[in-house]
Amino acid sequence: MECVNAIVCTTMDQTNPATIWDSKTGTLIAHFRGKGSIPRHCISISGGYLYASERGKPLIHCWPLNKQHCESRRLIAPGKIECFDFSPDSTHAAVAVSEKLHLYQLSSGRLLGIGAKHYQPISVVKFNDTNNLIACGGLDGMITVWTLANLIQGSDPLFSSMDHNLPISDLTFTSGSLRSRVLSVSADFSCKIFEVASGKLLLSIAFPARPTCLALAPNETAVFIGNSEGGIFEVNLFDKSRKTAEYHQPTEDKDSVFAGHEKQVSCIAVSRDSIYLISGSHDETIRVWHIESHQCVRKMSQRGAVTNLMFRVFSSWNFATGFKPPLVAHSFINPSNEEAHNDTSFEIMVKDDQLLDQILPTSSTCGIPQLSASVATPSGVTSSDQEAHLKLEIEKLKTVNNQMYRFAVKAILNGPSGVANDSVVPFSNVKVRLPNKKKKKVKGSQNDKRPKKDKTKRKKQKIVKSGKVNQP
User: Positions of the region Disordered (predicted)?
Assistant: First the structure.
């Protein structure tokens, strides 16, 4: 199977809001018919599915990568979704509802925790590459970094910062866990870099135009920042000329600017080999840039303003008709349902039978291995009480089935007259007689056993009745 280096794109187009393009040839690989436009920071690819939410609705729709139409199954949040992100290992989902962050387990749909630290709605949510940190940026200019343990336990975030004065436009993590950095851009014309472990501000860069998005090179040597005037700045993170924690990006440095878009740059991404840069704009175009030469090598027109872009490597099997996504994300469970907290079930997909034997004991029935696992019961309910309750339900079902049978027999046998007849025999004693088929008579056959009639006697009887006598 071949690997495909693809570009995932979302636009404000109502009919085809999401598309996948080949980054080398620029040909369209797949397009997904839509459920409305997809806003910024409202898309994720996980477990063979493309997840996206509509603007102003509490729904996350699911598209299999090999199908154009989304499934009827939807992930429903408790409120209007501002933004969301799925962890790289496809185990958790971070959903921002207004100013609160909700953490869900994808295998069961259970709500693990809620983080409330922002004063205004959250504008961007991002996981790190080790799946244990979540960064949030809000319209209040605050940046918070949570660990999964903080959210589950309901404690305070790892750190929070109010160094930005205006809403956060975009942010991202560097590689690593607690030793990583957080990069953010804001409407206050600045880009800031924080240390995750201490929350210390390491560098602040001021720009002549309002930053709207950013992307970090995979080798972490440079960061690319798009602005509202259609340009893209390149900032070298290892520039030795910077000797202070605050730096102003010069406007006359043309070697660090990618110019070509006519309107605001809304999203950018860098390829895994750090050779190409892609950018999407409100001018309804996607441009592919060669980073070393700062030249535009390809331009792709879209039907609406581009909202999200990402580089992904897919297998050609992902787009085949027989492909089945390996991971199914369950619908989010309403936290007000008490039974959902007591009874928790989730799916695990195991390909090796030996590994399956180690996880759960198995029993064999007719040569088919079957899982034997205990059923979770609500707290305070014993097994004997549950057994009595199930027996009572079975008796109720038998009574209802008997009533349905009596009603059906009355309706069929009595007809439209509706004459009541309580003496209805049980269904097991009802015998149905089928009508016998008449057999055709064949002359000279063994079936015709009746004696032949004498024609001379019949003729004499007719003559006597008429009063005539035959003379000899």
Answer: 432-472
SS3 (DSSP) at 149: helix
Model confidence pLDDT, tens digit, residues 245-276: 777 777 656 667 899 899 999 999 999 989 99
Reading the block at residue 397, the tokens are 């079902």
Determine the Cα–Cα distance for residues 164 and 188; give it in Å rounded to an integer. 7
- For residue 326, what is the DSSP state? S
| Residue 15: per-residue pLDDT | 85
Instruction: Confirm if 135 and 128 have CB atoms less than 8 A apart.
Output: yes
Sheet order of strands, 92-97 included: 81-86, 92-97, 100-105, 111-116
Phi-psi region of 134 (alpha: psi -120 to 50; beta: other; left: phi over 0): beta
Strand partners, 113: 103
Helix (H) or strand (E) holding 398: helix 383-413
By CB atoms closer than 10 A (0-12, 13-18, 19+), residue 338 is exposed
Integer Cα distance of 407 and 118 in angstroms = 62
In the numeric block, the tokens 């055709």 are attached to: 440
pLDDT band at 384 (very low <50, low <70, confident <90, very high): confident
pLDDT at res. 429? 53
CA distance 65 to 63: 6
Mean pLDDT, the chain, whole residue set: 80
Sequence-separated (6 or more) residues with CB below 8 Å from residue 404: none
Closest C-alpha to 214, from 242, 185, 239: 185
The pLDDT of residue 167 is above 80: yes
Asked whether the beta carbons of 86 and 65 are under 8 A apart, the reply is no
2 CB-near residues (< 8 Å, 6+ apart) = 315, 316
Q: What is the mean pLDDT of residues 401-426?
A: 71
- What whole-number distance in Å separates Cα of residue 8 and Cα of residue 275? 18
**pLDDT tens for each residue of 363-381:** 444 444 444 444 444 555 5
pTM for this model (two decimals)? 0.69
**At 10, phi and psi to the nearest 5?**
-125, 145
How far, in Å, CA of 118 to CA of 98, rounded?
A: 9
Are 137 and 128 a contacting pair, CB within 8 Å? no
CB 264 within 8 A of CB 282: yes
How does 345-356 read in b/e, with b if 16+ C-beta sit within 10 Å?
eeeeeeeeeeee
**How much is the pLDDT for 363?**
43
Cα(38)–Cα(32) distance, rounded to whole angstroms?
12
Check whether 114 has a pLDDT greater than 90.
Answer: yes
Q: Which amino acid is at 265?
A: V
- Annotated domain spans of the chain: 3-319, 338-365
Q: Is the pLDDT of residue 6 over 80?
A: yes
pLDDT attached to residue 43: 93
